[in-house]
Amino acid sequence: MDILKILEHRKNLLIFLLLWKLGTLILLGVVIDALVWPWRTEFIADPSWLKSYLNWDASWYTLIAKEGYSNEMARAFFPAFPYSIRLFSFGVLNEVVTGILLTFIYGALFVFFFLKVAYTRFSRRAGGIALVLFLCAPSAFFLSCIYTESLFLFLLFLFVWLFLIKQSYWAAVPAILMIFTRGTGFFVGFAMGVIFLFEIPNAIKTQQFKYLRYVFAIGASFVAGALLFLGYQYWQFGDPFEFIRVQDKYFGEYFSNSILNCFNPSHVLDVFLAKPGLVFGRSFSVFDKTFFYLAIVLSPLVWKTDRKLFVFYFSLFYFPATMGELGSFGRFFLLPFSIAAICCAKFIVDFKKVTVNVKTILLMVFLTCGLLAESGLCLLQAAYWWIG
User: Fold this and answer.
1) What is the pTM of this model?
2) Which of 26, 151, 165, 206 has the most beta carbons within 10 angstroms of its beta carbon?
3) How many domains does the chain have?
């Protein structure tokens, strides 16, 4: 059986995607109600299957969707995702149900543009393998949680498609929306600045000034998005830096995050060398450290495969990893891994020293182990364990 050839067909990918989505939703919601977690029951206020979708950040997004930012602590969360829940609930649907439906829609849109980028940049076979690799990553289940991952990944790959493939000025729209979705949008803006700087010598040499103006305009859209976000905070809360203030006030002691840490060599070295603590936790956990080292290992492969994609990969990996003490990095890793998965898939397709049968066996082993790990993490997330 040539699984690589099977994954070229969109029909097979659609079946796998639907089964994966159904499985994660069941594990996150329905199945957990049938299990007994006596040592965690004090954290579960309502055993209903909907309640298990409200763990951690999800509870804040649904609260904002329902009541706005009346709770000061809620101001630490960006507005695009919860307000889209409010918009599409039409004042009738339950916010949790709407959130689940939107993660499905955003996730489907992400997959659509993810495949378009992979197909156009590399090949259909690489695209199919990349999608399966990504969905079998242990923390990929967050696409089914009421978190921003599904929306942000959709906007990220819509942006990459419009910017790198279509070279359309419409790329400015997802660029601005990323800023309003989560802080990672600012890191994508940083990547655009780096790309612009690297394009200058080549543009001068080849006299491609029109393309250089285009790259500058798209990069400037992130600046415009940042200014709009500051203006929104000032209009809503009377302080353009309310998000930073609330993050520091309520979450600073838990995560020790600061953008200045990213430029502090001593702190960066600490992140590399810090001894892992608990298996799951907010500070240098085994789970988060594992993904941190994996991101480092994958970096040369991404660099060799596609330099522009590497700039986005590095920005999505480096800043979240070095801002604090790797809190939630197992989840944050999902964003750079979406790019790494495409590069890994291209490597698998192009690597000729191994037969198709061996590739199939290795891929099946990865899929089996990945799905088992993901299933276990789904159950832990539903049982109110801190996964990310």
Assistant:
1) 0.92
2) 151
3) 1
